[in-house]
Design goal:
It is a single chain. The protein is mainly β and about 675 residues long. Strand 40 and strand 41 form a beta hairpin. The termini are far apart.
């Protein structure tokens, strides 16, 4: 077995109770139940054992590389089970690291003996990141062989530096790499000063007049990241140079051209300096105002301020890349296109325009100025139309209450309007006199921009105030009437009392007969068609609502009619005085009291009073019919003095014949 690194990972395994652990596997030809080993051929050693190298805390060894067993059994032991344990499966030996230290693994097969050395180093280590200890996810220290992923790049405190990687025990690695914890790890961030580079790469030129000064910021040309930038002029008879805190101040001495060189580590920028006898023209920063309500583009013409007595020429170009901007001659146009939408209440775009200047036919350099594009949208907010909901009383005598007029506004300060229903334009108003539910479409045009228009819609819902509509009180009516119990044997019906708001009914029909007014119907037995058996009389009543508003109202009125007059006593309640009664000796009275203080308790208008003696009253004759039951209401007067009661007797006689007397 080749030698290599010692252990690379530690895995704790089961430790035996004694000083040695062993594994045993039977060879071919062995009877495991006999306890004996039949050995047909002596085992042969192929090579010596060596040092065991662990992977993830254990190592597997194919013993057939070391011993030709020839049917003999393999046995294995560890001299120190607290350091390493052994296990056999067939001819495979598995050694598991259990703790720090050294052990000797012995393998025996027949008379062949092999030894393997095992060294388990320290099991746990520390990881320190920029001086701060880092713990694994489960806390504590790192187990040997564990993996640690280096964190993301660290932001340096000094913006002139940049992160270059992690120093792991003297080796540089990058964020996201994984390292194996097989010893104490010290990890520190590596920073380097950023490399200087040129900022403005195109040809540079600066113009100034004699006696005038111009300040040049080195940061506009070189990103130095804290390094010193040196400024040297060639042709210093034309200019003087002063450098303070990254600002180069150039002062014109005489008319002519010079070169200013800015340099730092590895970066050099040359700037052409033109000292003119006349001052360079000045350009004011200007702006373009674009209101999307009226236009999607705008332009500005450049008008520099020039020194008198000199001829100037200009070539304009854009230093800012913007596809919406274009320059023609001395005019810049900014076109947003038809589909532009504001991101905020107003948007602002800054453009740098460069003017290449010639003075008296000589190139004088260039001048930069800013054009600011201010974009807004003053489009008035789209009008909002509320649904029109109105309730009208169709039975009102006043026309204003019997209709609803929808007022249509033709215009306001921002818009003009066209109203349509079903594609047909409306005039200034629309009048509704019946229930309606319509959708009105509105086309509105912006006064400030007649080409700009929009549309909206609203609903018109006109409903009736139904509190005055006629209605049925009951869907149908059924009554039972005995003509013998009604006055004069005639039952009076008001067929129209079942309607409410009858003033708004145009006409009625009863069983097909039309009536314009409410009428009263009566039922009597003039034709003799009613008797003690009930007969149903049905009326179908229909009411038409005024103005044709709504469906007619209809119900049935059923009267179950009987007439038991033939079986009733004539004037049984004395309401016709003593008519029909005979033998009376008392008095008939309708007074409600006697002696002015005692109530008569009479039922009806009249009663018969007897002051003394015996009174006999004989009723008119009558027919007993129906069930045969006879009912009669009567009362007695007060007792005689001494509280002797007065008796009342009621007797019935069957009439035998006229003049033939009576019998019980």
């Amino acid at each position: 077995m080749k030698k290599g690194r010692k252990i690379t990972a530690l895995l704790l395994a089961l430790a035996a109770a004694g000083a040695m652990t062993a594994g045993f596997v039977a060879c071919e030809g062995e009877d495991p139940d006999s306890g004996k080993q039949e050995q047909t051929t002596i085992a042969e050693k192929l090579k010596e054992g060596g040092a065991i190298v662990f992977t993830d805390g254990r190592a597997s060894i194919d013993l057939t590389q070391y011993v030709k067993a020839n049917g003999n059994a393999f046995r294995a032991t560890s001299s120190n089970p607290k350091v390493a344990t052994v296990a056999l499966s067939g001819s495979t030996l598995t050694v598991t690291a259990a703790g720090e230290g050294s052990s000797v693994i012995m393998v025996v097969c027949g008379e062949v003996r092999l030894t393997f050395s095992v060294t388990v180093p320290k099991s746990f280590y520390t990881v320190t990141l920029d001086g701060e200890p880092v713990s694994p996810a489960e806390g504590g220290m790192w187990q040997a062989g564990a993996s640690y992923t280096l964190p993301e790049a660290k932001t340096p405190a000094d913006p002139n530096f940049e992160f270059k990687g992690w120093n792991v025990n003297g080796e540089t690695k990058q964020a996201g790499e994984t390292v194996t914890v097989n010893k104490n790890l010290t990890i520190t961030a590596l920073f380097e000063r950023k490399a200087a580079h040129e900022v403005n790469g195109h040809a540079q030129s600066v113009s100034l007049s004699v006696g005038k000064s111009v300040a040049v910021e080195t940061a506009d040309y070189i990103a130095a990241y804290g390094r010193e930038v040196r400024a040297v002029a060639e042709g210093n008879e034309f200019i003087t140079v002063d450098v303070q805190n990254g600002i180069v101040t150039l002062t014109g001495v005489a008319t002519g051209d010079a070169t200013l060189t800015l340099s730092t580590e590895g970066v050099t920028v040359s700037i052409e300096i033109h000292v003119l006898s006349a001052e360079m023209p000045t350009f004011a920063n200007v702006s373009i105002d674009i209101d999307l309500f009226t236009a999607n583009s705008g332009s500005i013409a450049f008008a520099p301020t020039e020194s008198e007595g000199h001829t100037y020429g200009y070539v304009y170009s854009l230093n800012t890349q913007d596809e919406k901007a274009s320059i023609t001659g001395n005019e810049l146009t900014y076109d947003l296109g038809a589909d532009y939408e504001l991101e905020n209440e107003s948007d602002t775009v800054s453009l740098i325009v460069e003017a290449a200047v010639t003075v008296d036919g000589n190139s004088a350099g260039s001048v930069n100025f800013t054009v600011t594009v201010k974009i807004k949208d003053s489009t008035p907010a789209a009008p909002v139309f509320a649904d029109a909901t109105e309730m009208i009383d169709p039975f009102s005598e006043e026309e204003s209450e019997n209709s609803y007029t929808l007022e249509l506004k033709s215009e306001d300060e921002h818009f003009t309007y066209v109203y349509k229903i079903g594609g047909i334009a409306l005039s200034g108003q629309k009048k509704y006199t019946a229930e309606a539910d319509e959708t009105v479409e509105v086309i509105y045009t912006y006064k400030g921009n007649p080409q700009k228009r929009g549309s909206a819609s609203f609903a018109v819902r006109v409903t009736f105030d139904r509190s005055h509509f006629p209605a049925l009180k009951e869907e149908s009516k059924t009554v039972s009437v005995d003509l013998a119990s009604v006055k004069d044997g005639v039952y009076i019906l008001d067929l129209f009392a079942n309607f409410s708001n009858t003033g708004n009914i145009a006409s009625y029909s009863v069983n097909g007969a039309v009536h314009t007014d409410g009428i009263v119907y009566s039922i009597s037995n003039a034709g003799g068609e009613y008797g003690e058996t009930s007969t149903a009389v049905t009326f179908t009543v229909i009411a038409d609502i005024k103005n044709g508003l709504g469906e007619p109202l209809s119900y049935t009125y059923t009267v179950n009619v009987t007439d038991t007059t033939a079986f009733r006593m004539q004037n049984g309640g004395f309401e016709d005085g003593l008519n029909g009664w005979t033998g009376a000796t008392g008095s008939l009275s309708s007074d409600g009291s006697y002696w002015g203080q005692y109530s008569s308790n009479n039922d009806g208008q009249y009663y018969v009073g007897v002051d003394g003696g015996t009174e006999t009253l004989v009723s008119p004759s009558f027919v007993v019919g129906g069930s045969g039951w006879i009912t009669f209401k009567f009362g007695s007067a007060r007792p005689i003095e001494g509280n002797t009661p007065r008796n009342v007797h009621l007797e019935f006689y069957e009439k035998k014949s006229e003049g033939g007397g009576y019998g019980y």
